[in-house]
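Reminder to self: keep the SMILES exactly as supplied, no canonicalising. Ligand is flavin-adenine dinucleotide.
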Amino acid sequence: MDSQNKSNRQVQRAPCFSNVGRRNAASPSVIVIGGGFAGLAAARTLYDASFQVVVLESRDRIGGRVHTDYSFGFPVDLGASWLHGVGNENPLAPLIGKLGLPLYRTSGDNSVLYDHDLESYGLFDMEGNQVPQDLVSKVGETFESILKETDLIRKENSEDMSIGRAISMVFERRPDLRLNGLGHKVLQWYLCRMEGWFAADADTISLKCWDQEELLPGGHGLMVRGYKPVINTLAKGLDIRLGHRVTEIARRYNGVKVTVEDGSTFVADAAIIAVPLGVLKSNCIKFEPRLPEWKEAAIKELGVGIENKIILHFQDVFWPNVEFLGVVAESSYECSYFLNLHKATGHPVLVYMPAGQLARDIGELSDEAAANFAFTQLKRILPNATAPIQYLVSHWGSDINSLGSYSYDTVGMPHDLYEKLRIPVDSLFFAGEATSADYPGSVHGAYSTGLLAAEDCRMRVLERHGELDIFQPAMDEETLIPILISRM
Ligand SMILES: Cc1cc2nc3c(=O)[nH]c(=O)nc-3n(C[C@H](O)[C@H](O)[C@H](O)COP(=O)(O)OP(=O)(O)OC[C@H]3O[C@@H](n4cnc5c(N)ncnc54)[C@H](O)[C@@H]3O)c2cc1C
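C-alpha cells returned for the bound complex:
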C-alpha cells in the first residue's frame, strides 16, 4: 500500500453525527451492515434508543431487494411488491397504515399456492387458446389433492426428498391424479407458480420443510405506490454511508472493527450484519476470527433461489382484465406468467416473473434480449400484442449486492438453519430475511429480524455499559415506571 493510500485511510468511531441531540460520545455505538429492510429496521430502532448508529451500504441506494423504480414516470417494484398478510398481525401493518399507503389485495387468506383468486387468472396454451376456467379450477383441486398425498409420503419416509420427487411418487401410487393433455399443462403451471414462490425448482425444494413458514392472515396485497416510501421512512435521519462495501469484520473483546473496500475502518461496540445470504455464501466478507463452524455450516446449507422481474411498459392495454396471464406448457420450465399491474395501479404494465433455472437462463441474456424473450411469450398467447415502449430487467442472481433473490429450504437440510443464521456471535448480531424461521423470503420477515437483532444488541450492550441516557437520580412519582417482575 502506498503512503498516499495510507493517509486516505481513516479509523472512524461510528458514527460522526453533526447533530447528535441526546446522543453523545458516551452512548453505545453500533455499525449496521446493509441498508435493506432488516438493516434499516435495526438501525432505526437503535437510533431511537439513543445509540450512535452508522449504516454501511454497498450500493448507491438504500432498500436492497426492495427497489422501487420511477423511470416509467410512476412507481414499479423490481424486487418485493406484495405485503404478504394484509392485517394487523403483520409487523409492518402499523407503519404502512400510518403512511396511508394503498394496497391492492390480489387474494384472500388460503395457502401460498393459491395466493390468487382463480377467477382472475387468464391461462392460455402456446397456441393462444384460452384454457376454460372450469378446467383451471378443477386442476387446482387436483393439485391440492396431490400436495395432500405428498404429506403422506413425508410422514412415511424418514429421509427427506424433493417436492418434485414426491409428486412423481404420488403419480405412481395414485394414477387417478395423473392428468393428460391440457390438464397436464395446467398442472405444470401450478407447479411453476409454486416454484415462483420459492424462487427454486421443484427438484431442489425440501419436502420436509417446504410448508414450515408461517402465513399471516389477510391475504396478499400489492403495494400500489411501491415500497420506497416505507424504506425512506425507516431511513429518515439515519447516518447512512452509501457506496461502502464491507470486506472485513473483526471482533474483539471490547467491540468490533469493520473494514470497507476503500480501506477505511469503523469501530463500535457491536455490529448488526444484515447483508443477504448470497453475499455471506460468497465469502466476500472476511470474518476475523472466523465465524464458528455451526454458523459457517448454516450459511453454506441454507438455499438461496432466484426470481427476477422483466417489467414491460406498453402504450395501451390490449390484454384481458385479469390479475395474472399464464402460459401453460408440457413442463413447469416452459410455463410462465405475467402480473397485470394495470389492474392494481391503472398503468399499462405487465410483469414477467421467471424463477429457478428459467431465471438463471434468462439471466445470461442482455436486458434487451430478456425483454424480447418475455414479449415473445406474450405474443404466443396474445398474437396481436404490440411491442413495449419501455422495459426494466432485474438481476438479483448476478448482482454482487444480493447474489440471489431469497432463501428456501433445500432437500435434506433442517429448517432450524434460519435460527442458526440468526444467533449472535459475540458482539455480532445477524438480521435479514434468511434469519427468519417464521417468515423467510419476505419483507415483513426481514423487518422483524431487524427489530429482533436490535433488541438483542440493545440488551447485550446494556449488560455491558448500562443505559446512560435514561438515568435520572431524582424521579418523581409520576415518572416512575414499574419494573417487570415474573414468577415461575
Ligand atoms: C424479485 C423479488 C420479488 C420479491 N417479492 C416479494 C414480495 O412480493 N413480498 C415480500 O414480502 N418479499 C418479496 N421478496 C423478498 C424480499 O424482497 C426480501 O426478503 C427482503 O427485501 C430482504 O431484505 P433484507 O434486508 O434481508 O436484505 P436486502 O434487502 O437484500 O438488504 C441487504 C443490503 O445489504 C447490502 N450489502 C450487500 N453486500 C454488502 C456489503 N458487503 N457491505 C455493505 N452492504 C452490503 C445490499 O446492497 C442490501 O442493501 C422478493 C424478492 C425478490 C428479489
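Points to follow up:
The CA atoms of residues 59 and 243 lie 5 Å apart.
The radius of gyration is 24 Å.
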